[in-house]
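W.,

You were right to be curious about this one. When I first looked at the sequence I had no strong expectations either way, so I just let the prediction run and decided to look at it fresh. Below is the sequence, 413 residues in total, followed by the output.
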Amino acid sequence: MSIAYVALTRASAKAIMWKDILKDINKKFSLGCKFHGTELKMMFPNGSELILVGADASPEEMQKLLGQKFKLVVIDEGSMFRIDLEQLVYSTLMPAVADYNGQIVMIGTPSNNTKSLYFDITTGKEPGWSVHQWSAKDNTHMIEKWESQLAFMKEKNPRIEETAIFKQMYLGEWVIDLDALIYKYDPELNSVDKLPEKRRWNYIMGIDLGYNDPTAFVVAAYREDDPALYFVDCYRKSGMILTDVAEITEMFIAKYDPSFIVVDNASKQAVEELVQRFELPLTAAEKKDKFDFIQLMNTDFYGGNVKVLPKCADLVTEWEALVWDERLKEMGKYVEHPALPNHLSDAALYAWRFAYHYTAKPKVFNPSADPMDEWWEKESEKLNEKEDTYDEFEPDRVAEAITDLAGMRGLPF
């Protein structure tokens, strides 16, 4: 009979369990177990064995668990996995414990990744699991050390108990560290119900191509006298072939008439097919220095110069969950967490990088200007907005306008 302890990597599994736990238990209780260092296997005198596995290093590591039989599988650091945890549990491990009617246990502390099976299980969203929760205070063997450590942390930061990292690591609470979010979206600062008063809007569209991953479309708008970029519409769908992509793109073209359509050019063959076969006016997206441009975009978030309309709720959902991969971040590499969707976010970033909202100059009222010119400019804007013709002008409106003009000129009318 076998038991598996599954950590992120074989190295982390060994560091956590091998010396300080397994060998210590064997010695303390005189179990008479043998240890195979190369295979990371603890063998009991009765023939049972416990193996240490690292399943998050690559999909190939996860595949090594296929076809085996386990009485118990323990997955450690459940919130930190970058692979598809749902696939690991339901497609790989559930069949492996079926023969012995075994159990799968997941343990760990909360993290900033709220788009995982571990989050769904521990928050009650995933049925069929028994959930048990403790805080650091519940560990009676460590209570004195914990209180001493807390006192030390409070000396350095009196408000340490209010921080997300403290709530995650010591209280076991799911709280996202806002500083860890990649995009600094603030609903109070960056959300609007609709575009401001009608003007001449310039539309721009970003597309992030995918197949197994969703293809994402984002439409943004800006104008010459407003420093904000408005995200007005978005859509995403998996399994789209190029014909589907072309149809959705043409739909957005008919609706918004974008000045530019900026597309992820990673698959140059696919993009060229869209250009030549469907005659779509596509422009290759700028993808270099992604981290730097995200930081620049965040200055727009902070300054209120990114505005999001209700149709882009799915884009907001991505922004409110997307964090950096913590393990790579520790090595100085900034890469989005691979378990979190970022396709709409990328499409939005393509559009933002190609927009010219930052060149906006507010219109200044000129009191010395001819009132007739002022009036005609306003009427022209109304005409363009409503797509009227002269024949469609209402008589009462024309008469009212002539009266206003006469008053401006001091003429009796």
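Here's what jumped out at me. The longest strand covers residues 226-237. And, maybe more interesting for your project: The chain has four domains: 2-132, 144-180, 187-359, 371-409.

Coffee later to discuss?

I.
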